[in-house]
Structure to design on (300 residues):
């Protein structure tokens, strides 16, 4: 197959691994910076141009689109879809997952367990918002935050009110969630490909922090997951329409809770911790799915 990898940086671990895995299986692969693409959007002559040339047809496209370029990156991916390329994660599914509020609403609609969550812009009654999620301690998040940025643990009611008021002063949308104390600064990242969990790690927050993001100094360890954790990870990915997803789960006393679903999960932490060749599994899945005349899923 002829495959395009949409990435701003071909030197990143995940991009290099996908490039190597695709070439090892005999595919012709090109890394394309989505921000350097521009599009001809016309009936019968839709095309993608890249650095002065019109791109030829690609059988498949692998989106590695960072949160900072979601809007333009998914527009480029959508143009590849229009031109007949099969996407490893569709543009509409990526935009669902990137919108934290929308993704939580869709998960809640399907009855998928998650931390109690409130959403607000300029709450007139901060006390009621805090009460709604069970009181302090609680977690306050900026909707636009990523990789643990814009996430604050408020351990007391006074601290929670101060943080919410501060975020309100930024004219920002905020999520307020119950704090799952028993998780002890740990979460489970399940890597889902084609409706199967192919690898799982437990991420530990660095000392003194409650955020387990590897970008913030967290550590990753291979972990055995339960049947209920496997089921909820698969359901969460399917609800958002993602063929490939990193589903983050908290182990709570009442059972597993989905914290977030990542549409472009990093491969380094999970490959090194588990020894599993995730990149190869992604390419194999793409081979099985890419075919002429595919139909895009819609909805949500």
């Amino acid at each position: 197959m002829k495959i395009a990898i949409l990435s701003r940086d071909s030197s990143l671990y995940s991009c290099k691994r996908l490039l190597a895995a695709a070439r090892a299986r005999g595919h012709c692969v090109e890394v394309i910076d989505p921000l350097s693409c521009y599009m001809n959007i016309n009936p019968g002559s839709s095309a993608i141009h890249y650095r002065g040339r019109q791109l030829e047809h690609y059988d498949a496209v692998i989106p590695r689109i960072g949160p900072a370029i979601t809007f333009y990156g998914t527009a480029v991916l959508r143009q590849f879809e229009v031109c007949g390329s099969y996407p490893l994660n569709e543009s509409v599914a990526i935009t669902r997952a990137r919108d934290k509020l929308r993704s939580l609403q869709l998960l809640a609609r399907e009855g998928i367990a998650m931390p109690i969550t409130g959403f607000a812009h300029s709450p007139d009654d901060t006390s009621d918002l805090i009460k709604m999620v069970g009181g302090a301690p609680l977690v306050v998040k900026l909707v636009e935050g990523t990789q643990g940025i814009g996430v604050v643990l408020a351990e007391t009611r006074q601290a929670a009110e101060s943080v919410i008021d501060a975020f309100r002063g930024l004219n920002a949308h905020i999520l307020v969630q119950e704090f799952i104390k028993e998780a002890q600064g740990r979460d489970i990242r399940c890597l889902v490909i084609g409706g199967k969990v192919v690898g799982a790690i437990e991420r530990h927050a660095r000392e003194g922090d409650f955020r387990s993001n590897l970008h913030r100094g967290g550590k990753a360890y291979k972990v055995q997951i339960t049947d209920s954790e496997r089921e909820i990870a698969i359901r969460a990915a399917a609800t958002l329409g993602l063929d490939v997803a990193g589903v983050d789960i908290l182990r709570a006393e009442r059972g597993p809770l989905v914290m977030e679903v990542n549409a472009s999960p990093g491969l380094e932490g999970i490959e090194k911790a588990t020894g599993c060749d995730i990149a190869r599994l992604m390419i194999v899945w793409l081979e099985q799915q890419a075919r002429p005349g595919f139909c895009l899923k819609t909805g949500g």
User: Anything to note?
Assistant: The chain has a mean pLDDT of 89.
